[in-house]
Amino acid sequence: xxxxxxxxxxxxxxxxxxxxxxxxxxxxxxxxxxxxxxxxxxxxxxxxxxxxxxxxxxxxxxxxxxxxxxxxxxxxxxxxxxxxxxxxxxxxxxxxxxxxxxxxxxxxxxxxxxxxxxxxxxxxxxxxxxxxxxxxxxxxxxxxxxxxxxxxxxxxxxxxxxxxxxxxxxxxxxxxxxxxxxxxxxxxxxxxxxxxxxxxxxxxxxxxxxxxxxxxxxxxxxxxxxxxxxxxxxxxxxxxxxxxxxxxxxxxxxxxxxxxxxxxxxxxxxxxxxxxxxxxxxxxxxxxxxxxxxxxxxxxxxxxxxxxxxxxxxxxxxxxxxxxxxxxxxxxxxxxxxxxxxxxxxxxxxxxxxxxxxxxxxxxxxxxxxxxxxxxxxxxxxxxxxxxxxxxxxxxxxxxxxxxxxxx
Length: 408
Ligand code: UTP
Known about the structure:
This protein has helices spanning 3-13, 27-39, 51-54, 68-87, 123-138, 153-162, 208-214, 217-223, 244-253, 291-295, 317-321, 362-365, 378-381, 394-403; strands at 60-61, 91-96, 143-148, 173-177, 180-182, 192-194, 197-198, 200-202, 228-233, 257-263, 273-277, 280-284, 307-316, 331-335, 339-340, 346-347, 354-358, 371-375. The protein is of the alpha/beta class. The strands form six sheets. The chain has a seven-stranded mixed beta sheet. It has a three-stranded antiparallel beta sheet with strand order 1-11-12. Strands 5-8 form a two-stranded antiparallel ribbon. The N and C termini lie far apart (48 Å). Uridine 5'-triphosphate binds next to loops.
């Protein structure tokens, strides 16, 4: 991008202060800043005024899950359907690994974290090992698309190569980068990290499909005849991907999407719950779950909003294609954003000082005509690592791995 183009882009977005130190930068720094400006989507800032409006929810009603006893009754049939789809090459997997993992406080990409005790067991290794189980049983390789961000792309790619992809076939692994969004102060003015660097961060896990399209990865999906994409988070070390029973259940039900869910361990557990919103499938975040909804009962007398999504979704590619032109709602979230102050000092704030702008994969569920919430046993499939200690941590994940016979 030329200086003139960058100027125009920033002027239109009301962000000319980004060029304040331009004249004093070295040539490589100038180039870096212009690239940064080219890569950053400033349009998100215009949504700040509509923040309240964006957070409004429609009318929430219950959506029944397919529970474990019902799944077990049909397991053989579902698995047959699922394995058939896998063997025909109709199922691909998408690993969302572009996040910053700030809560974990680990400087490298989260997937590189070693949860081992007596030996090395990296998060990426655990996930790939679970996927390899299915590959071996199906006797068919499954494409694995890995989303990274500018902040962790090189390290992720190099790490997996150094470890020979933990036994996965390299030709079936495809990396793509998600886009970045700027972080701003409360008035919508973009923060600078350095004189030559905008304070930007990955634009949320909802960007995966458009990033696949922009990175020409969707061409691989189309050319290989992939009809279903199983999207999942990097941080759940018990995550089961391309699970044949789940795939088969979604196909058998004729749904355009499926979401793995677990029974909540308390009414106020901090997970997004499956529901209908204005009659369409949706997920209501725990902070939007009113007391009335939290205590509502279904006809069996059980909590009506009792199933939390664990960030493992199966989307029909045909249905996704119809969503590409639609905009996902933006989540404008208050965060602590490190920045450069007026005197050029780098400040790491103790308290939130502005907003990040993100889209979330959970909002894609609402764009689908139908969704099957599919219950899994949390003890076997849900060990998220968000923190070092305490809830959803390395500690709790290690205990759960132990319960599942995984040697660490
Ligand atoms: P989280 O919501 O836990 O975010 O991501 P995070 O950035 O990893 O962690 P914190 O909040 O900073 O501690 C859930 C999943 O979505 C991915 C993450 O890598 C993780 O697999 N993700 C998140 C992305 O791929 N891109 C993003 O921009 C954000």
